[in-house]
Write a structure and sequence with these properties.
With 134 residues, this protein is of the alpha+beta class. It has a single domain, classed as 3-Layer(aba) Sandwich (Glutaredoxin), CATH 3.40.30.10. The protein has 4 helices and 5 strands. The chain has a 5-stranded mixed beta sheet. The longest helix has 14 residues.
Length: 134
């Protein structure tokens, strides 16, 4: 067990959903139902039987590529060589479907991502995350 009392051997693939200054902001990104997307991700995680989890965070950094979601590998996925994958422009139902399909199949290190989702892979920011004041 780690210091939090969580058995690391059972950590599932996790979708980290940015909901900071730009991601999830209907004024900056009109026409996207951000609440519906997050509700849908959470409901699918609940229905997955623990195959994947969803959590939110404030600002991941690449605001010009919002909405940003990071797909973190499960413990088994990390052992198999999987690393966190950053997804940008994740605003429509198709990308949400692809994210859910990949996470349900095991995510990085376990399953190959959908080809269309690979087109949305972005580079993670380097160094400390500095957010522009808006």
């Amino acid at each position: 067990m780690n210091g939090l009392g969580i058995r690391a051997a059972h950590r599932p693939c996790t979708l980290v959903v940015c909901r900071g200054c730009c991601c999830g902001n209907p004024r900056k990104l009109p026409g996207t139902d951000h609440a519906w997307q997050l509700d849908r991700l959470r409901a699918a995680a609940t229905d997955s039987g623990g195959r994947f989890a969803v959590r939110t965070t404030d600002c991941l950094g690449p605001c010009d590529q919002a909405n940003v979601i990071v797909v973190q590998p499960s413990t088994a996925g990390r052992r198999a060589g999987g690393r966190a994958v950053w997804i940008g422009f994740a605003m429509d139902d198709d990308s949400t479907d692809d994210l859910l399909r990949w996470a349900s199949a095991g995510g990085p290190g376990i399953a190959e991502p959908p080809v269309a989702l690979e087109l949305q892979f972005i580079r993670p920011p380097r160094g400390p995350r500095a957010r522009a004041r808006r």
